Amino acid sequence: MHLLALTCEALTRPVYYFAAQSVHMIDIELVRRNLHQPADIHTRLQQAIDAHAGEKLAGSLLGGGLGGQATAGLRARDIPRVSPRAHDCITLFLGSRERYLEENKKEPGTYWYSQDYLERNAGQSAALTMGASTGDDAQAMYLKYMERYGKAKADRLMQVMNDWLMHYKRAVYLDTGLGGDGSVEAEARQVAEAHAWAFERMPARLGLIQRLLNGDWEDDFLVVPPGQEIAVSFGEEIISSRAGGRAEGDVPSPLAPPPGHAAITLYQGKLRG
């Protein structure tokens, strides 16, 4: 099959690695994570999907999961779309929905770090992107928010971020074994030490990414038929597909981030409103 993989750049190394071993011909397009702001990612994903309309592809693969509900409402045009039943990239690094829930139950106040996530930071502080900042980083962000929103809203936003950090107790570096010089892990350790968080180095389990690129789409994946769109579902399935209107059990619009995600994105949305 000739497939198109639209993937969050946080998964760059694993996606290229398994695409190179797949029996299928796979074109890869990376989607800039842009601080994981769902509305922006949703727009760019739909534009990328539409740009390939009419091409002779057997299907498109969505690497990254629900992504703070960024993929909710994405419409498959003339080819099927395949998406992991996952809240976000963390599930794909951990290898299953069950392990995702297990780790969040073990310590819900966890920041997750990976090689691609931190090194592809688009000129922003990698630590700040993950929700942990040094004093200099925080000051730079505060000045940026002041310019964009004004002092009063910038003060409120920084207060929300600082309050949210108080709930975190653990930093986990997910080791994929796919390159890197150790600097990203070292940075994650430094941030953990600065915030007095426990630090863990955890082996990633990349089976879901491998299966996505190999065309093994049973159980842990949703295949969206042409003309339908992705909808959010309550329960273990996480996502469903719908032809229009609302599927039973789904959510019509983003309500809250999944476990382990900061509230900062929702607060920024309120500021833009």
Walk me through the structure.
With 273 residues, the protein is of the alpha/beta class. The chain has two domains: 2-90 and 206-251, no CATH class; 97-204 and 261-272, no CATH class. Helix content is 40%, strand content 20%. It has helices at 12-21, 38-51, 89-94, 97-106, 115-119, 126-129, 135-149, 151-165, 183-194, 207-214, 264-272, and strands at 2-8, 25-31, 59-63, 81-84, 110-114, 170-175, 198-203, 221-224, 229-233, 239-242, 250-251. Strands 2-1-3-4-8 form a five-stranded mixed beta sheet, sandwiched between helices. Helix 9 links the parallel strand 6 (170-175) and strand 7. The relative contact order is 0.18. The model is unreliable at 122-136 and 245-273 (pLDDT under 50).
Spatial extent as radius of gyration: 19 Å
What would the principal axes of the Cα set say about the shape? Answer: globular
Structural class: alpha/beta
Could you tell me how far the N terminus lies from the C terminus, measured between alpha carbons in angstroms?
A: 43 Å
Instruction: Round the mean pLDDT to the nearest integer and report it.
Output: 77
* Quaternary structure of the protein: single chain
Q: Number of DSSP helices?
A: 11
- Provide the helix percentage: 25-40%
Q: How much of the polypeptide forms β-strand, as a percent range?
A: 15-25%
Give the biggest beta sheet.
Answer: 5 strands, mixed
In total, how many beta strands?
Answer: 11
List the strand order in the largest sheet.
Answer: 2-1-3-4-8
What number of domains?
A: 2
* Secondary-structure element order, N to C: EHEHEEHHEHHHHEHEHEEEEH
Low-confidence stretches: 122-136, 245-273
